[in-house]
Amino acid sequence: MSHPLVWCVGGLDSSGGAGLTRDAITLADIGVKAAMITTQVAIQSNTHSHSQHALNASAINSQWQTLAYEQSPCAIKIGAIADDIQGLLLCARMSLLHDSANNGEGDLPVSPYDTVTHRNTPLIIWDPVLRTSSGGQLSDIHEDTIAALLTNVHVITPNIDELGVLSGKSIHSHASLLQAATSLSNTYRIAVLVKGGHATWHDNAVDILVCGTQQRMFTQHRNGHNTLRGTGCMQASALAGFMAKGYNLEDAATLANAYIKKVRTTVTTSQNEIAHAVPVGMPCKAEHFPSVTFENDSVLFRDITTTNTKAPLAFPALKHSQLGIYPVVDSAKWVARLTKAGVKIIQLRLKGTPLTARKAEIKQAINHVAGTHTQLFINDDWQQAIALGAYGVHLGQEDLATSDLNAIASAGLRLGISTHGFCELQRIKALNPSYIALGHIFPTQTKVMPSLPQGVDNLRRYVQLCGDTPSVAIGGIDVSRAKPVSETGVSAIAVVSAITQSSAPEAALHRLAQEACYA
């Protein structure tokens, strides 16, 4: 199996603690191939910077051309740029990439859902390294060159000080950080991932991803046990690597954050001792992953950027944790039919149905499951579910902002929520839902999805991150795929067309259950 390729542009650190050496180690650790373009050599130890020696533009250009002749990268990660000459050369090279792939019409803008598969050119990430952790000055580029670079890259990953330099603003609070990041994002149509470990105004360590009006905050408890060099390089190169592997921007940011956490918890040194990272592989345990909030989430549930004591929401547990096959149907008649067939859980999805008809269908469906072991969830229509006394509600991510979660919890209804990747999964865990839906696992014809199919390997990781919360796999699952899906440990398999479009629905249900070893 071939590994995706990332070009790393930046400086060589003689101590091995940061720069291109750290980029290459990080990328190899997560299964990504790295190629190097050296801009300068930094002669330094872990604690002292002695000197920096910049390569001339011709040498950098030759490296770029040589790599381009052999293989195009999925992503390009840029680190330390010594001076304006180097910066403008890289701008010229990046501009040619954009123009050649898009007939001079420019590249696609970045969104949190962006992946390298959505792009016509390599995704370019700039980690604007200005100084080394040992105290050396790495970059002497001026305002016009910074603007030219920002025009040609897609994602930047500054720390607090670097954000101030790029934006020309004083960063002294959460509000000023968001203002500066949003201004850069809107002006240059780029994503800005601010590494917030030095933001003293946050109780926890909070990285913030800004894409226009959209925000994602990734929160970890602070780790003050050791001083680990090269974390900025590692995080930016991990972000590039995970995107090169096909993860969208918000999932890659989640994974990169978790990777750094795993590295920090793996390194063992005495307090205040300077440490180098060791290979740790893909993050997989819940303890490594950040809590995630989106813009305005603090209105919905506890603000995890602070240590406030606002009680989190909690929804009742399901009657059955091992759920089996989970049909999603569009009428009360289907609910009645499949309840008689013995399903433990079912969802009524009434898209585009007028209010009066919805009320009637929901009421009938509730009557059909009364006195049975079937757990009925109503898709989206939480007001009617509360009013009519339904068992539970299923919401999509986009419905969280428009639903009254407190009302649902107060009414004693169970809550299931859809997720489409690591970022959304980490977001909704703070809500303590009754179950978490994970998808879409395979290509599906049921609805248009903004994300790519997640696959069984990612599903297995998601199930582990769900912990004790029941999990439901959904999307393109049929009889031929039921066994490998169930082997991930998922609590239920949701199906739509595999049953409703079958000529013998009850037989299809039982065969699915047998293949998944749920029978």
Quick description:
With 519 residues, the protein is α/β, with parallel strands linked by helices.
Task: Furnish the topology, listing elements before pairings.
Layout: E1 5-13, H1 19-29, E2 33-44, E3 49-54, H2 57-70, E4 75-78, H3 84-102, E5 123-126, H4 143-152, E6 155-156, H5 160-167, H6 174-188, E7 191-194, E8 205-211, E9 214-220, E10 227-228, H7 231-244, H8 249-266, E11 274-275, E12 291-294, H9 297-300, E13 324-329, H10 332-340, E14 345-348, H11 355-369, E15 375-379, H12 382-388, E16 392-395, H13 405-410, E17 414-419, H14 422-428, E18 435-439, H15 455-466, E19 471-474, H16 479-486, E20 492-495, H17 497-500, H18 505-515
Parallel strand pairs: 1-2, 1-4, 4-5, 5-6, 6-7, 10-11, 13-14, 13-20, 14-15, 15-16, 16-17, 17-18, 18-19, 19-20
Antiparallel strand pairs: 2-3, 7-8, 8-9, 9-12
Shape: elongated
User: Beta-sheet strand percentage?
Assistant: 15-25%
The gyration radius over C-alpha positions equals 25 Å
- The computed structural class is alpha/beta
Integer average pLDDT: 89
Largest sheet: 10 strands, mixed
Major sheet: order of its strands?
3-2-1-4-5-6-7-8-9-12
Q: Could you estimate the helical fraction of the residues in percent?
A: 25-40%
Compute the number of strand runs: 20
The low-confidence runs, each spanning 5 or more residues with pLDDT under 50, are none
The total of helices stands at 18
User: CA-to-CA gap between the ends?
Assistant: 36 Å
